[in-house]
């Protein structure tokens, strides 16, 4: 497990996290009663359903034990991988009406918030909570901007995972334990599934899930170096290699169900759970959906990197911030203490399906995690790390939002050339 720890320093991690939710979402009290000081913390999050809600609820229980004097108020904005939440939060921050803390993806998304002066430096909390010892040094270094740190990560997720129904794959004579080596081989398998009577071999949901699928195709067809080059300008979004990847993406989309294009990830995953489709590409917050259906990993369903992504860990992480002007900064500090603590990270990640960002868990503590999570830890410890576009680790929020808009148009017109032009324009946004 120590390989997991050492490898975190190699993260292609930009420093910031994404803006997300709004104080206007639904609220529920998850902590104890207000203490004598009237302390509370309003937590803006899109963790409102499924394994995400279970993870938050587990965190809330730890928070209640660690900080019984602070009232926890959950301010939820559901859906869209945070898309809905981010839109409302941006307006609140601009209006100088920040929440006490908000969830964000680790990565380039938060660069605009830092530049606008919306976030406090939380470097002192890293010293107070001894996070410089708990998190790998290189990870802390990469979270540092001009000597300051603006976020505290609660977990690590992997985005480039295929969730596959074993029985459906076998209908087409496919070996669930031997996935194809590249995207073209995967497309060939989808053709076999179609010929075997599987109407929609692969599913995809709303635009953020479409972007997640697209980034994995880009990784496969371009390779790690050129994929990373899309972010630093060394690879041309308008070039022929990207065009080839987009053509492969378009072929994959032909095997999807258009009725799901406006749905969130869970409805898009349901056909795989129900045995109607073979594949879905999704982050590893998915296991509880299979657990709830009494499906066993390795028997009823399997996971593998998107073909062509072997040896690559497509990284994202959830984190929380301390906004400038937060009404209850002491409550926020208590929340950041809990999400970064051993107890908080174990409770949250066991429920959510992600892996801890702390590097100091004992073997006994790591044993609490599922077989899938242990496999993710192993992969994280040895694979090449790249940053997710869809989840804010690779590009600023303005760029990813425009890319999602472009994909929405593409699903209607199937214009590859137009999609490439719009993606190139989006990537130039800051």
From TrEMBL:
Originating organism: Mobiluncus porci
Function in brief: Part of a binding-protein-dependent transport system for a sugar.
GO CC, one annotated term: cell envelope
Keyword Metal-binding assigned: no
Signal sequence segment: 1-21
Upper lineage: Bacteria, Bacillati, Actinomycetota, Actinomycetes, Actinomycetales
Family, similarity comment: Belongs to the bacterial solute-binding protein 1 family.
PANTHER family with a match to the protein in the record: ARABINOSE-BINDING PROTEIN-RELATED (PTHR43649), BINDING PROTEIN COMPONENT OF ABC SUGAR TRANSPORTER-RELATED (PTHR43649:SF28)
Location in or out of the cell: Cell envelope
Superkingdom field: Bacteria
InterPro entries, per database record: Bact_solute-bd_prot1, SBP
Pfam families: SBP_bac_1
Keyword terms, alphabetized: Signal, Transport
Full protein name: Probable sugar-binding periplasmic protein
């Amino acid at each position: 497990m120590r390989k997991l720890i050492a490898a975190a320093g190699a993260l292609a991690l930009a420093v910031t996290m994404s803006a997300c939710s709004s104080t206007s979402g639904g609220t529920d009290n998850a902590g104890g009663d207000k203490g004598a000081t009237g302390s509370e913390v309003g937590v803006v999050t899109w963790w409102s359903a499924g394994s995400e809600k279970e993870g938050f609820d587990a965190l809330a229980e730890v928070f209640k034990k660690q900080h019984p004097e602070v009232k926890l108020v959950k301010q939820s904005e559901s859906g869209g991988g945070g898309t809905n939440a981010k839109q409302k939060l941006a307006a609140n921050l601009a209006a100088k009406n920040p929440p006490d803390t908000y969830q964000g993806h680790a990565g380039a998304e938060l660069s605009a918030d830092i530049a606008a002066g919306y976030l406090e430096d939380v470097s002192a909390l890293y010293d107070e909570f001894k996070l410089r010892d708990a998190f790998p040094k290189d990870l802390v270094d990469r979270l540092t901007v001009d000597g300051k740190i603006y976020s505290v990560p609660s977990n690590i997720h992997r985005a480039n995972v295929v969730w596959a129904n074993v029985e459906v794959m076998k209908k087409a004579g496919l070996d669930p334990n031997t996935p194809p080596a590249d995207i073209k081989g995967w497309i060939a398998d989808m053709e076999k599934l179609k010929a075997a009577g599987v109407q929609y071999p692969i599913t995809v949901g709303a635009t953020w899930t479409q972007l997640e699928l697209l980034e994995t195709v880009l990784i496969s067809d371009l390779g790690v170096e050129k994929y990373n080059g899309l972010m630093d300008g060394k690879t041309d979004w308008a070039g022929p290699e990207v065009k080839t990847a987009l053509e492969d993406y378009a072929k994959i989309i032909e095997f999807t169900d258009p009725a799901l294009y406006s749905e969130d990830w869970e409805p898009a995953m349901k056909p795989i759970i129900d045995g109607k489709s073979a594949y879905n590409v999704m982050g590893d917050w998915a296991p509880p959906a299979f657990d709830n259906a009494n499906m066993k990993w390795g028997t009823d369903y399997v996971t593998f990197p998107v073909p062509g992504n072997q040896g690559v860990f497509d990284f994202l992480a959830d984190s929380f911030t301390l906004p400038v002007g937060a009404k209850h900064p002491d409550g926020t500090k208590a929340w950041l203490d809990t999400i970064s603590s051993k107890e908080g990270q174990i409770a949250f990640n066991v429920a959510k399906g992600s892996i801890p960002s702390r590097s100091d868990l004992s073997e006994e503590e790591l044993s609490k995690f599922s077989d899938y999570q242990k496999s993710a830890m192993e992969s994280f410890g040895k694979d090449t790390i790249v940053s997710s576009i869809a989840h804010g680790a690779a590009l600023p929020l303005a760029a990813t939002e425009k890319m999602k808009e472009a994909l929405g148009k593409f699903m209607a017109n199937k214009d590859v050339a137009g999609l490439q032009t719009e993606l190139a324009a989006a990537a130039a946004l800051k």
